[in-house]
Amino acid sequence: MIALDKLAWTTCSHVEADEAGALNEWLAAAPNATPAHGQVGCNIWLTDMANRAPRALKNDEIIDLGGKKVRWLDTPHVPHNWDAGLIYEETTGTLFSSDLFTQFGACPATTSGDIVDAAIATEKAVPFMPPTPLVAPTMRRLAALKPRTIALMHGPSFQGDGGAALGALAGYYESRPN
Length: 178
Ligand SMILES: [Fe+2]
Ligand SMILES: [Fe+2]
Known about the structure:
Layout: E1 9-10, H1 17-20, H2 23-29, E2 34-38, H3 39-49, E3 55-57, E4 62-64, E5 69-74, E6 85-89, E7 94-96, E8 110-111, H4 116-125, H5 135-144, E9 149-151, E10 157-159, H6 162-175
Parallel strand pairs: 1-2, 2-3, 7-9, 8-10
Antiparallel strand pairs: 4-5, 5-6, 6-7, 9-10
């Protein structure tokens, strides 16, 4: 928990209602927070849509929150949208994966079980990842971080070998028929 007047930053992966729909409500509630995003996001929507001037983050730029270090990763079109990025918290090894590994239905808050099969089933049912050659190398880059936790937006937080899970999902996208 953090007092709202101590909240220094807001960010999200990409422009979409479930990611950024409450942006200005957050900025109103947190008077000292600065909205941050990659340069593309600032250019194509955030500067115009936020009620407060944003800060553009460079790829791999780290913000030290004081005890936690958050790295911004440009991941264009992964999971979707040109402005997409993800954040990785270095001290805990936590990747906030946005829509990656989305699964349907009720789930526990955390799991150490398999999250890859459900992610592939979701992609087959409602394909959301664009067929771009950027997908697999981007996911391989995320795998190389070897996250110990993958914090899903739509599913349980996964605790375990995040590099293996990301590598397996990258393998699916490499072999996926376009
Ligand atoms: Fe999304
Ligand atoms: Fe989402």
